[in-house]
Amino acid sequence: MAKDALSLAWQDMRRRRFATAIKRLEAKKEIYEENFEYYLTLGIACLYVGDIGASSSYFQLARRIKLTDTRLLLGQAAIFLRRGDTARAIQYYLEIQENDPLNKTAAAAMEFIRVHGNYDTICRWVDTGKIEQFYPQLGSNPDKIALACIVISAFVLGVVFGFIFFPRGQQFTGPRADLSKLELSSDEKSDAKEKDLSTQSYAFVMTNKEINRRYNDALKYFQAHRDNAAQIEVNMILNSDASVAVKKKARLLMGYFEIPDFDSIKDVPSLTDVAANPAVYLDCWVNWGGKISNAVTYDDGSYSCDLLVGDESLARYEGTVRVKFETAPAVDGSRPVKILGKLVLEDGTVSLRGRAVYQSVHN
């Protein structure tokens, strides 16, 4: 049974053959004049090939016919997002959430803007094509599904033959990183304490057993993606009477820690904990909220402020910490804020080396 041009165009688009879909639809322009699905489909196809001018024109034609279609709103929001106009994009995403509260694409786009919505990052996402995850969804590519079935079938056959010919094969657990070279040797375990304690004082004096336990805990926390918890154990070791060899490996372990974002950060210490024992929490990451004051933007583009740590109204106030950014963030100083930063020591005082700022899109 013959299919219409719109159905065939969607088949082309699911196979990511956008130029074919555009050519097919443009040939039927007279037939589909004033047809919402026709304009919408052409707009989406042009969006995926990067012809933003044509895409915007087709979306505007579709909007004259129907205003609240989620696919249309996603397409128009994506155009503003590509341009770095996040304020306009957010307006469309909020409208989508009003009409379709469970829409995952709009929710993901809002989260991207919240965490990574600076212009440089958006440019990189457009360049690499990652921005397409916020476009109107096309569904599964049947060509890739067929290829995946072939790959899976080959894999299953490989596993079957592997069990037949290699029944005692090695099992792999897939750790986060191979840290076998950082495990303590038997000599390092037995001589984990510094022998000469007369040359300097230590914040923490530990037994041989405790040093080994803390080092092993740091490795375990790392594998569990709990880098802050691992950093605390490392700091305890570095400020203790542990041997030079153990401290050297602890510092090497720090090189494997990752920079978190607002969603992935774990084991966040409170400002009260940090103030009570700063050395234990240095180089940990925090996502403290509150309000900012004394903000200054310097001639080199850097920025500093005081963060009054607490809840939005500061009814619960923990204290104040100095924050510095290499480049000035887009932040409204009159509204509550949450800052992602690294705890560092400057001039004998704990401060934050800022990385990202989050403010709610709602006033």
The helix-strand sequence is HHHHHHHHHHHHHHHEEEEE
In what order do the strands lie side by side in the largest sheet? 1-2-3-5-4
The main sheet comes to: 5 strands, mixed, barrel
Task: Classify the secondary structure makeup into a structural class.
Answer: alpha+beta
Number of helices: 15
Average pLDDT, rounded to a whole number, is: 86
**Can you tell me the residue ranges where pLDDT is under 50 for at least 5 consecutive residues?**
159-174
Principal-axis shape: elongated
- Measured by DSSP, the beta-strand proportion falls in 5-15%
Q: Distance N terminus to C terminus? A: 55 Å
The radius of gyration over CA amounts to 28 Å
Helical content stands at 40-55%
Features:
363 residues; alpha+beta; five-stranded mixed beta barrel; 15 helices; 5 strands; 48% helix; 14% strand; elongated
